[in-house]
Every structure is written in structure tokens, then in C-alpha cells.
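Researcher: Please translate sequence to C-alpha cells.
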Amino acid sequence: MSGSDFTRAEIEQQPAVWRATRMVVQAARTDVDRLLAAALDDRTRIVLTGAGTSAYVGEILAPELTRLLKRPVEAIPTTDLVTDPHAVATGDQPVLLVSFARSGNSPESLAAAGLIDQLAPVAHHLVITCNAEGRLARAYESAGNAAVVTLPAATNDRGFAMTSSFTSMLLAAYLCLAGEADVDALAAAAETVLARSEDVRRAVTALRPERIVYLGSGSLKGLAREAALKTLELTAGTTVALGESSLGFRHGPKAALTPGTLAVVFVSGDSYRRAYDLDLARELAGDLGAERVVLVDAGEGTWHVPRSPGLPDALWAVLAVIPAQLTALACSLAAGLTPDNPFPGGEVNRVVQGVVIHPYGEGRN
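Model: Translation complete:
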């Protein structure tokens, strides 16, 4: 097996595992609905959490869930929650903590949930994970204040970077918290995107980007951050990548542009946000040249990603991330790296290492 076989296969399996994920959520529906009925009163604070890619699942979903549920939904990474838990557990508010975890073995995942149990007056947990044997799933599988949704085993990506685990957790959370989605249509659209994977590889190889900037608005800002992380991970940082919002980019981060930069704009399906995305794309074409600005769009974009009418950006993200995954894979291979293990020396690990969880007490200074 070559050093890219897991990563490539896990990108390509996404349509199949999404269909399987839908079945898992359907089977867990009674348990999830029981939890939500108990958790969602008018005072409950809803927090979506995870680390790294898992945190970006929450960033993508939070704006759309806020609209659909007509109440604030926040994305706060476990890495922030663990270091400052009272920013989440405040006053007398109950908390519904929605945890995303590929392995469920990252130290912060279990610590964040435990701190909410310790500090919130009432805590509820929805755990969405790809690993039934992980510490997080085991800790809450029988808890009365929790529901655990364990996704199909194939979603527990064996490659270094999360690909199918990311999109499957995003889809599962939408189905749990927002309601129905046409998973078959999403899977069919993904298959059309994957059928053009060689076009993406050739385009990226020809451009030979020294840096990649990913940009998007609303839910697509979180997608831009995930896309940038994929490039950093799979190229071991040899291709510098940045994710930012379309409007925020001009306020300093634009300094990252070089003549060898590739700019990728995820174009929103919402006409208001779309106008800002396209304004920036035109500006970047003037700065870099049109050939170095890629639009990921359902219309006339450089990388066409289908979008059915009314599909929210948060769900379109499971499709729009695929070209970014393929880009990261192409950059990794072009650099002579092994995408399944871009850090053979162990400098960065599939499950984070070296984290010490310190006890949290009210008597601290």
C-alpha cells in the first residue's frame, strides 16, 4: 500500500459513508430526540465543540443552526473550553455540549466534557464520534444526560488528516439538530465532483502554489479554515495555507499574498454573502492574475460544485471541501511527501500528544 492510499480512499469513499451515516442517525433518532427534549429549554446554552478539524465542524454549523433553531448556537473549541471553562459554564445556564471527535481519545475532548459536568448547573451531552471504542464514547454511552452517535467504522479515517470523518460528522450533526437533508442528492453531487479529481490535480500541479489562501463568508469561513488546515497537515507545513473570511481578509491577513499564492474563494449560495465573496475574488484577480484565483461555486466557478436549490452553505460545505481535500493531496504528493504520514518523525500526530490536563479548582489564583 502506497503512502497516499488511505487518504485517497477516504476522500473517495465520502458518498458511500454519508449514506451509511444517514442510517446511523436514523437508528439513533429516538435517543437523540430524548436528549434534545430534555436539554432545549429557553435558557440552555448550545455549544459545539471539538479540536482542530472537529472544531471547524462547529464553526460551519453554528450560523445555520442559529437561523434554524432561532436561538444562539456557539462554536467554541475544546482547546479554548479546557483553558477557560467558565467562559462556557456561566451563571445558572444549562449547557448542551455537542462534541465532535474522530477518535474520541484527544485529551481535551474528555476534559472539556468533564469540565462542563463539573461547572455547569445542568449539563447535557450530544457526542458525535467516529470511534465506538474511544474514551469519549465510552464515558457517555450509558450516561443519563447524554446521547452518543457513533458513525460507521469507515469514517474513523486511518490517514493522518481527517477527510471523510469531517464531512460525516458535519452531516450527522445537521441531521441530528436541524432535521432532514437529501443525503442521496448530496452523495450523487459528490460523485460528480470526485469524477473530476484529475482536473483538480492537474490544475494545482501546474500552478505550483507556494501559498494557498482559502476564503469564505458565514458558514464558509469555517470551511476556509478547514481547507487551509488540510494543506498544512498534508504538506507538513511546506505549503503555507491560511483560511479567513472574505471581508476579514483585507484587514491584515492580505499581507500573506505573494506572486506565487493561489487564492480559493468558496462562493456562498446566499445572494447577500455572495456579493462580498465575488467582490474579493475580483480584487484578488487584479492582485494575482485571474489564473491564480479559483472560485468554488455552483455556477461558473473554476471548480464547479453542484448545489441544489435552497441548500444551505453549511450542507454545501460537505461537497465544497472535496476540491480542497484533493488540492492538499496533490500538493503533498508534488512535494514528495507521504500523505498518510506526512510527519514520520512524529512532530505532529494523528491523535494529539503531549497535552497535560491540569485540575481545575475554584481556589485558583
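Researcher: Any highlights?
Model: The chain has two domains: 5-181, 184-334.
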